[in-house]
Amino acid sequence: MATLLELQTFLSEKGSLTVFEKVLTNGIKRIFYIYNAFNQVRGGHRHKLAYNALTCVSGSCKVYVHNGETEETFILDTPDKCVLLEPRDWHTMYDFSESAVLLVLSDRFYEKEDYIYEKYDELITSE
């Protein structure tokens, strides 16, 4: 199941510095960010192999996660909060603030075949 991490942050009179370190055990292969998503829902999938780390570096959003057994909603409203998604975590991101910038780090390059778009409920009822 997804986990909420508190990223290591260093504070000084010059500002704050937050570090992504040892978050993805297989390293970082891909970085992207989502913005201008106010009133939109993003995601709507899970993965076969990819682990992803999500943090809102500006603004806020919610991340809904369902792993086939449990579900949880995370609120990313400070840049030191990070949701670590496992491949089986079906997820959507929503309730973006107008200034939201959601940073996503992945341990895999983009591969269309890695994406699974069916929700767990749909998989259970179709069997």
Please give a structural write-up:
The chain is globular and about 50 Å long. Strands 1-9-6-11-4 form a five-stranded antiparallel β-sheet, with no helix packed on it. A five-stranded antiparallel β-sheet has the order 8-7-10-5-12, with no helix packed on it. A hairpin with a 2-residue loop joins strand 2 (8-12) and strand 3. It has one helix at 120-126; strands spanning 3-6, 8-12, 15-19, 30-35, 42-47, 52-58, 61-66, 71-76, 81-85, 90-94, 101-106, 115-116. The chain is mostly beta strands and 127 residues long. The protein has a single domain (3-126), classed as Jelly Rolls, CATH 2.60.120.10.
Task: For this entry, give a set of tags.
127 residues; mainly beta; Jelly Rolls; five-stranded antiparallel β-sheet; 1 helix; RmlC-like_jellyroll
Write the layout of secondary structure elements.
Elements: E1 3-6, E2 8-12, E3 15-19, E4 30-35, E5 42-47, E6 52-58, E7 61-66, E8 71-76, E9 81-85, E10 90-94, E11 101-106, E12 115-116, H1 120-126
Antiparallel strand pairs: 1-9, 2-3, 4-11, 5-10, 5-12, 6-9, 6-11, 7-8, 7-10
Protein name: Sugar 3,4-ketoisomerase QdtA cupin domain-containing protein
Domain Sugar 3,4-ketoisomerase QdtA cupin: 3-119
InterPro entries: QdtA_cupin_dom, RmlC-like_jellyroll, RmlC_Cupin_sf
- CATH secondary-structure class: Mainly Beta
SS field, number of helical segments: 1
Strand content: over 45%
CATH superfamily: Jelly Rolls
**Unreliable runs:** 123-127
| Overall pLDDT confidence | 94
From N to C, what is the helix and strand string? EEEEEEEEEEEEH
Radius of gyration: 15 Å
Please give the CATH architecture.
Answer: Sandwich
Q: Name the overall outline.
A: globular
- Widest sheet: strand order? 1-9-6-11-4
**Helix content range:** under 10%
Compute the number of structural domains: 1
